[in-house]
Each structure stands twice: as structure tokens, then as C-alpha cells.
Amino acid sequence: NIICSIVFGDRFDYEDRKFLDLINWIEENNRLQTSIQTQLYNFFPNVMEYLPGPHQQLIKNFQKVDEFTTDIIKEHQKTLDPTCPRDFIDAFLNKMEQEKGNDHSEFTVETLSRTTLDLFLAGTGTTSITLRFAILILHKYPEIVG
């Protein structure tokens, strides 16, 4: 939720259905990434796109996560106050406005969507995995707890 407040400018209630769905899609994708079909999809996307397997669910989940971030970006665009950025998205939207005349600018809505998703995934994934391993180590070596 700390990452959410930095990136999205808002914290989600821990019972929020949309937030729980987002977490579930990300966790499911973390599990699906270890399948052989997903590994093959990374090397042969054009072929694997037509074959069944867990990589198809990974693609669907990624599209749902992308829709989630895109919806938040659209809402930010509607309520943007350039003089008072609330979060990363607002700061990026302000920079997009500054770069409007530059045809070679990398400040686009697509880049914003991908960067927002990268920040969110890096912040949540890294933290949760670190905590899981810390708890496992403490469980294995209880003498270091005391």
C-alpha cells in the first residue's frame, strides 16, 4: 500500500475487491512464470500464442493488470491539477504536457502505463519476497530470534 500511495496517489482498503484482484493476478503470474510453456513463450511468442497452456492465463492476467493501471491513469488525467501533483502519475502527466511539441519524447501514456506497472511490481514483489525469505530463515534458525 505504500507503493500504491507513491505511484497511484492513494492507498487501497485491504478489503477492496479491485485491489485484492490485482494482488491475486500478480501472485498467479509469479507462479505461472515458472512453467515450461511460459519459458517457451518468452523465446517463441509467435508460435506459443496459438498453443494452449498456462502462458495464456499469464497473458490474460497481465492484460487485467494493465487495464487496472490504465483506468487509474485515465482518472488522473480527468482530475489533474498541474500546480499540485499528487503522485508519480501526476508528475509524469505534467512532464508529458511539457514535452507535447517534441516528436521524439518518451513521455507517452503507454510509457506511463508501463513505468507505473514496473514501479508497482518492483515495489510489491521485491518487498514480499524479501519478507517471505526472512520469515523462512527465522523459522529455520529460531536461535537468532531470541
TrEMBL record:
GO cellular component, one term: endoplasmic reticulum membrane
Subcellular location: Endoplasmic reticulum membrane; Microsome membrane
Cofactors that this protein relies on: heme
Annotated InterPro entries: Cyt_P450, Cyt_P450_E_grp-I, Cyt_P450_sf, Cytochrome_P450_fam2
Main localisation: endoplasmic reticulum
GO terms under biological process: epoxygenase P450 pathway; xenobiotic metabolic process
Entry's EC annotation: 1.14.14.1
Membrane protein topology class: Peripheral membrane protein
Principal EC category: oxidoreductase
Coiled-coil boundaries: none
Record key words, sorted: Endoplasmic reticulum, Iron, Membrane, Metal-binding, Microsome, Monooxygenase, Oxidoreductase
Superkingdom to which the source organism belongs: Eukaryota
GO MF: arachidonate epoxygenase activity; heme binding; iron ion binding; oxidoreductase activity, acting on paired donors, with incorporation or reduction of molecular oxygen, reduced flavin or flavoprotein as one donor, and incorporation of one atom of oxygen
Family, similarity comment: Belongs to the cytochrome P450 family.
Protein name: unspecific monooxygenase
Taxonomic source organism: Falcunculus frontatus
Gene this protein is translated from: Cyp2h2
